[in-house]
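Shipment paperwork, digital attachment
Item: protein structure file
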Amino acid sequence: MHEPGMSRPAPSPIYTLRGAGAPLNTLHFSCHGGDPPLLFSGSGKGAIHMWNLNTRRAEKVVEGHSGNSVVWVNTLRGTDTLISQGRDMRVCLWDLSEGRSALLDSVWTGSVGFCQCSLLETSTGTHLLAFAGQEIEEIKIIELPSKTPVCILVPDAKLGMVMCIKLWQPDSGPGPLLLAGYEDGSLLLWDVTQRAQLSQAKANPEPVMCLTFDTESLRGVSGSSEKNLSSWRLDGQNNLQLQDSVTLVNPGVSQLSVRGDGKLLASAGWDHRVRIFGWKKLRPLAVLQYHTDLVLSVAFSDHQDPQQRLLAAGSKDQRISLWSIYNEGADTG
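Attachment content:
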């Protein structure tokens, strides 16, 4: 089934990873450093699998959140530290060095929602961690590894639950900024240092389920249960400006991811499909059909060699599909 204006045959996954035994809520690649390239997945039954992409098998399984769903995984760059967030209201840090999987520390978030944490490296060995707090609209930011509280961000108006967040450090300006999507469909831009709301826009009519933001072009997209993707940008004064939305064939997006080179956007669809768009003009390029249930997560790999870069998708069908979408030099529009 092709989208209008698409002539290429439908691709197939280069391989799949099975055995997680539960829906795959979150994926994170670690392919830039040592060997072997790794993919971490977090499951609906509380397991974190560390997949070796050379052997295509799970090298390690960490059971970290008392059987509660794992909603987000990440790694601290340049270390053997894994970080995971579960619906047990905890964020856990794990030492994976020399074959270990030892719990280093944990942070109690107080939040039972599905809002994924956001991590930002501020200096070598120091990170900011943002997460939805105990109160319905609050975002808490702490420093790691010290766990020192940085700030709590609460909007002036009633916007409902915090649904998704993204921390980043702009090239110009003193400190980090944070984008947040809320239950009423609003997007807010926060200045973390000043604890101030900089800009607000009503991006979606429904709750903002997911967002992704390209810190180079200062453009972002957000998805909801609706049949479109909302597109927006930041101007030079940090004002959120809504742009044309992209109509989808079927409603519902779980997650969005922009590839590191700023050329492609992937969406995880409730219609069991992954859709690929050119990031520049949000032109539909491909529909990846393999999964038999909701696609919950998408992630692009961070291989240094562009030809090795992969896209991974995790689904409620308990499988992960891996796709090669190498198109260096192609017009991705």
